[in-house]
């Protein structure tokens, strides 16, 4: 089973587990770099939780997810149209002022990540801002039914810098917002398109 099949199969449970999570501190760090009305891609929007918050704050939000079942739930939750698309299939050019990739690139194999970063860079307007978060660690491989790629602050910084596409604005670690994941740490990055 690949990750998309997993999210389709367990969409209702994933929705319930994540729809009420509070990521406002992270969201505020991202939105400080943008202006009201700016266009934002919510990459891997899941339940649509963050799309709805940003939409209600006056941003022009495009929710996107690769899981058909998650898209259906996000549309019900947000009232917004949700694009059914994987990040590998994105072909946007200079469309978004910001890309919010919260916990959405954790299943991309490390050897494919530079190509994905290139697609995200293409999708951003000049000087556009990318937020991404990944699990902290050095593991790459299957955990249960899904493939995961973890990063340290150093390994994520090195990979992003190698692409030459982004200027890193900030990188920091946070604890998991879910109470039942006390041992999971996250690496967060804000970067601006060069």
Structural commentary:
- The chain has seven helices and nine strands; from the N terminus they run αααβαβαββαβββαββ.
- The strands form two sheets. The protein has a seven-stranded mixed β-sheet with strand order 3-2-1-4-5-9-8, with helices on both faces. It has a two-stranded antiparallel ribbon with strand order 6-7.
- It starts with a helix and ends with a strand.
- 33% of the residues lie in helices and 30% in strands.
- With 194 residues, the protein is of the alpha/beta class.
- The chain has helices spanning 3-9, 11-18, 24-31, 49-56, 68-78, 113-123, 153-163, and strands at residues 39-43, 60-65, 83-84, 96-101, 124-135, 140-143, 146-149, 166-175, 185-193.
- Helix 6 links the parallel strand 4 (96-101) and strand 5.
Largest sheet: 7 strands, mixed
Beginning-to-end CA distance, first to last residue = 37 Å
Give the total of beta strands: 9
Strands of the widest sheet, in order across it, are: 3-2-1-4-5-9-8
Residues in helices, as a percent range: 25-40%
Order of helices and strands: HHHEHEHEEHEEEHEE
| Uncertain parts | none
Overall spatial form: globular
Mean pLDDT, to the nearest integer, reads 96
Strand content: 25-35%
The secondary-structure class comes to: alpha/beta
Q: What is the number of helices? A: 7
What would you report as the Rg, rounded to the nearest angstrom? 15 Å
């Amino acid at each position: 089973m690949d990750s998309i099949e997993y999210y389709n199969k367990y969409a209702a449970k994933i929705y319930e587990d994540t729809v009420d999570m509070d990521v406002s501190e992270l969201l505020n760090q991202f939105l400080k770099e943008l202006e009201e009305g700016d266009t934002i891609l919510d990459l891997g929007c899941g339940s649509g939780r963050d799309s709805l918050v940003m939409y209600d704050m006056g941003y022009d939000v495009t929710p996107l997810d690769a899981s058909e079942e998650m898209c259906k739930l996000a549309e019900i939750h947000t009232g917004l149209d949700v694009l059914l698309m994987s990040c590998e299939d994105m072909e946007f050019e200079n469309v978004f002022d910001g890309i919010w990739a919260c916990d959405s690139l954790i299943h991309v194999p490390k050897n494919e990540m530079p190509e994905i970063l290139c697609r995200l860079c293409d999708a951003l307007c000049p000087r556009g801002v990318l937020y991404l978060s990944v699990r902290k660690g050095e593991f790459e491989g299957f955990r249960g039914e899904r493939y995961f790629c973890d990063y340290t602050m150093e390994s994520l910084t090195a990979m992003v810098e190698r692409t030459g596409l982004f200027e890193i604005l900030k990188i920091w670690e946070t604890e998991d917002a879910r109470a039942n994941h006390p041992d999971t740490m996250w690496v967060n990055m804000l970067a601006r398109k060069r």
